[in-house]
């Protein structure tokens, strides 16, 4: 409704009266409303016409206007008292302010000639604007009110009176309402007038003088929009995290069903507050989730409704290793493959899913032309497509399977397997699983060269090019599993395979006692860079063979990074964000299975190059191996990077006194195919430094299936038939890594530096040589500087006082806060600089790693602090 402007003219009067009977009482003048023609608050007024004698004098006292001299009007009280500077033309006076006080004076005519008294009466008159242009009175038709016709509604016409007077109607005014301009058809009950859209005429009368104004206004009945019923949204998850982004505006046309002139608004709550921004894709916050809808026209009439969103899980797919068969005597490279032999490897223990194989990606996507289980290839090698579908929902996932027909005519193949012999009969049966918690060792022709092999699948092959070659093959358990399992047969001697033949040797593993073991690993594909996203991969692996595991893992990120979210969460598992990261609750993790989640973070632009970021993941339940229940990843912030590199999780410096004899170094070798085609095979060579204990090496994790072999200090990983896509083909899947642990030899001392370099081979291309990562044992961590503020932190580690020395600084106040590794603030101080330095007392802190935040009023920086 249009807001009306007011102006007020306040008028006081002083009257000199000569009367034997004394002056009359004060007059008590009431407000007068007049029209303002141009809404500027000023108007030419006839003061004599507005306020004649009879309007303010008490006629009941017997006086008449002729008993007084002519009234004089003044702009100030002094002029009135002194009878000076009277308003010259009161019949045509324009007010000079709004509101304004006008003083006036009337002297009595003393017919008796006797002066008795002179009395002043002060009062005022408000002159207010009467609005003659009235905004329409608009209401929405309540379509559910039970009347027979739409377009009618009940109006309270008296609201217009409030609009006319910019407030309540004064008692000395009356307002009446008519259906016609001639004002003959009076509306008897204006507070509940049932009407459609029409014009109403109003009559405003000033009861004191009979002054009348007329105006008109419109009644408008708005027909509300109606919301059509809306179907539920069912969306297949694209990354197994239960959340997905989609365009809500896709529902607009279904909701409006052809209606025009209305807007569709979406809300997360039934109170319809804070509409969802439709200019961006919306991501559900729960699964399933109810979206509340309000359809609103331009006046604000509305209808409401709701619909649900359900993000349906897709099945989980394990990338299968290639399916290989030996070529027959024809040598034509065409053989028959049993595709169903890969089913268990691909879907694991999932239920309610179906698996099919296809020749093309299109066939797999639209589910046409599935291949028979007994399939004969038409090319060698050949890539086919696997579709795994969740039968109740129809959601599916697709992966590839490589088929190879091998020429086995000139070589003998010795297949070696370690398997969990669940029924203890010594035979490797189809429903039994391979065993990965140990090492193969073999020696050829008793030449004294030991080949130590760790297979990510529990199986590997020895290719023998000479019928006369013999091999001694053994298997050993990792130390932590010696009390849990037993190797029924741990050695085969003088094994051979004649050309063109395949022989198999199995190492049966039987259970001694149940040993649950959950291992936690943190790795990353790309090191942190300011301004870029930084992704860590949290791997939770059930290394036990008997028990389905459930539990909780806490992740704490470095305070320097911004935590975004966690993706690729298995169905049924849940994540709860915390102030310093998140807690992941996993359920039903099958034996020898793992879950990998992506932790998405961002490194803010102010982060200094060279800063060390440390993230930690912890599984708090005591199990077989406490050593693998915590994973710490420290990486140096860099400006640019080579995607093929090697790094150690402690960072470049390790405090000598904190590193115990039982501690390991954790190395990650990362690689990426930056070529123009997929890499069929990838191989990594890594020569151990003489200060590393080669006997303690243990493979922990890898991005793809591989066979790891150690010969003395020379390490090699073979990713045969990996088909690693190039960066421009599929950037997210063009990366890979291996992750292993190893101990340094005893006797390392302060100042010792252990270097490590790897060479990566993509097919037959020359080696890509990584950086040389150097691990130095130190007494204290290097002094760290913030380039913006230029301060030095010393000593570090500390046990009493820590000094922050600023080389150049203009501010006098520094705020410092100390957090523990869980992100809880332990100490907070406002510090005044003394000789460009601040001292912190950390003697009350327990030994360990802390994070020191320094705020200079402009920027905030974080550094690690060790307390002894």
Automatic annotation (TrEMBL):
The keyword Signal applies. InterPro entries: DUF7619 (IPR055353), Secre_tail (IPR026444). Signal peptide: none annotated. Pfam families: DUF7619 (PF24595), Por_Secre_tail (PF18962). Residues 793-867 form the Secretion system C-terminal sorting domain. Residues 642-776 form the DUF7619 domain. Keywords: Signal. NCBIfam families: Por_Secre_tail. This is T9SS type A sorting domain-containing protein.
